[in-house]
Design a protein that fits this description.
mainly alpha; two-stranded antiparallel sheet; 2 strands
């Protein structure tokens, strides 16, 4: 239990600090860490709670800088798409394993849910590593399309920030406005997907949830608050290349393990 608290809280603090600048990272990294200790539906829902709470805290710090015209153009399509993505996640979680195999006496299962989420983790891990993806951006006329894509993947796996940043970076926003706009947009998607998780599958698993999950989510949320707080004070001083390299490598390893049923 100490290991779970230590790993999850340290990751939440460090990535929360980093994501304030990059616009993505907390959900992308924290969900696979939760998934190392809990079933994927529980991991996605727990991450969504931490993500929402942390973004609400960041809204208090930087939300006043948001460009509301961009928020509406991006977030309304994102909210609609998040409904679809979150519903798809719930349906995947009810499917039987595709393939079962054994290694050294241990049985592993490849499910559609693990394969999908693991593949997405690997894909977004490359966003952290490859310059081609790091510099990816789209004309501002595609902002509603970016909302659709970001919202859908946010609902499906929690991976919304990388696409959100790629579509908002060309919106002509100042640094503070970019951070504020992305944060407000993330809150809207988080609220929508949490409602769907709760209605579709989270309550169905309530009786079997590990007793420690609520306290662990609370601890991770507090750690993320600290990361956002210190990040706001370091807004003009931090570069992310080293963090992106470490995070990207870790995501690819974890994603491959999840897709192949090892995790």
């Amino acid at each position: 239990m100490v290991l779970e608290y230590t790993v999850i809280c340290v990751v939440a603090l460090v990535i929360s600090l980093a994501t304030l600048f990059s616009g993505f990272g907390l959900g992308t990294v924290l969900m696979p860490v939760f998934a190392l200790f809990f079933p994927i539906p529980v991991a996605v829902a727990a991450t969504a709670v931490v993500h929402l709470a942390n973004n609400l805290f960041k809204v208090a710090l930087v939300g006043r800088k948001a460009d509301w015209r961009i928020v509406f153009r991006f977030s309304l399509p994102a909210a609609l798409a998040a409904l679809g993505g979150a519903s798809l996640l719930a349906s995947f979680g009810q499917m039987n394993p595709w393939f079962t195999y054994q290694i050294a006496g241990h049985t592993y299962e490849i499910t559609l849910l693990k394969l999908t989420i693991g593949s997405l983790i690997v894909f977004f891990g490359f966003f952290e590593l490859l310059p081609r993806f790091q510099n990816l951006s789209f004309d501002r006329k595609y902002i509603p399309l970016g909302g659709l894509l970001s919202g859908f993947f946010g609902g499906l796996s929690g991976h919304q920030g990388a696409l959100r940043s790629a579509f908002l970076i060309k919106a002509g926003l100042a640094k503070e406005a970019f951070i504020g706009t992305g944060t407000v947009s993330a809150v809207i998607v988080d609220i929508v997907r949490l409602v769907v998780y709760g209605a579709a599958f989270y309550t169905a698993h309530l009786g079997t949830l590990p007793e420690e999950i609520l306290s662990l989510v609370s601890a991770a949320t507090l750690a993320a608050f600290l990361g956002a707080f210190f990040g706001a004070r370091m807004m003009k001083k931090v570069t992310l290349f080293a963090i992106q390299a470490v995070v990207g490598g870790m995501l690819i390893l974890v994603g491959c393990g999840m897709a192949t049923g090892l995790f």
